[in-house]
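Task card 7
Instruction: Convert sequence to structure tokens.
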Amino acid sequence: MNAGEIGQLQQIVGDLLAEAEKQGASSAEAGVHRQRGLDVTVRLGETETIEHTNDQGLGVTVYFGQRKGSANTTDLRPQAVRETVAAACRIARHTSEDPAAGLAEAEMMASEIPDLDLDHPWEIDALQAAGIARECEDAARAHDTRIHNSEGASLHTQSTLFVYGNSHGFIGGYPSTRHSLSCAVLAQQGDEMQRDYWYTSSRIPTGLEPAHTVGIEAARRTVARLGSRKIKTTQCPVLFKADLAPGLLRSLIGAIRGPALYRKASFLLDKLGEPIFPDWVIIDENPLLRQGMASAPFDNEGVTTRPRKIVDGGVLQGYVLDSYAARKLGMQTTGNAGGVRNARIDSTGESFEELLKRLDTGLLVTEMMGQGSNLVTGDYSRGAAGFWVENGEIAFPVEEVTVAGNLRDMFQGLLAVGADNQIPGSIDTGSWLIDRMTVAGD
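Output:
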């Protein structure tokens, strides 16, 4: 996507804001995006699906004082945009006033838009994409004779252009790309069947792991689960593998987001400035990380994004707020409209093997099922599979267990974070070792 397209979308947003003013709105904001992508899936050596995407959309919010109305459209022609603005204005005129409604403060707007190196298009056609996916699946299927079936390998590439503007005079936009390759296979041993997968993702095509490496890892993980057993209910240390640990950080972020706080629906309500982790824990976010999977020069309200510490020395330093939530709480936006960007927890330096030794005897979790986090109470209970560890060595695979505890205790009981954080994504963390949880089995 070239500069001309950015200019075109900026013009659409500028015209929209002028139209909103013309129709009587005291202020307005709008975001518009355009996406192009290719998805190709190969299964059992055959190309199963090829999907080209070319999407666009626009969302507008208008304010009449503190009355708010919003509307959306996928038609960016001038007449359709005018009609969308008119629809938002009609809604706003019939809504009640909300003292917290309105644009983010003008002085918070991004004055500069740095290049974060997020745009790396992949000029690849469907035939080439299918070839890469096929290489990935072939490597998985050839890895072990017990791999008897496949759910396929998929390659995804997407280019996005996003532009946001509001009545403060702010209009900004930037392009970005996202590429990924994944593979899922099934293994059989006697009457037992197991499934697992692996993936790689990056802003840059060359940042992806080699196709055969992804396939082999998917197969290795699948075969390792053969011979799974059930275990009796116990209390023990639990090690969450690095690709699952981001879910624990997301639970933290969910509990310190504005809506959970102003609705008094968080187990971390009124915990600002208090210790919620051991004193070695540091958690930060860096929205300006070059090539970061969640990087952005401004948030969804045009507010400047900045690196900051969320937890320092185990103490909660800040919430996750947009301007609406900030007003509800009598605080200031943290530039998190649209969420946290590139959250990271510092490692304690141990390798995965060293974490197993420190675990000694307990459960290594490699898969989670279901949604079992109650952010109001902190209660945590999810189905799991993984491996039983004895004397620091993996003993046998485990299935059909539930790991349970309370997030408050789990955070305080965090013993270590591994240095095995090689999985790219919007959250950067190694494996988490937690001192004690209930593992429910037979």
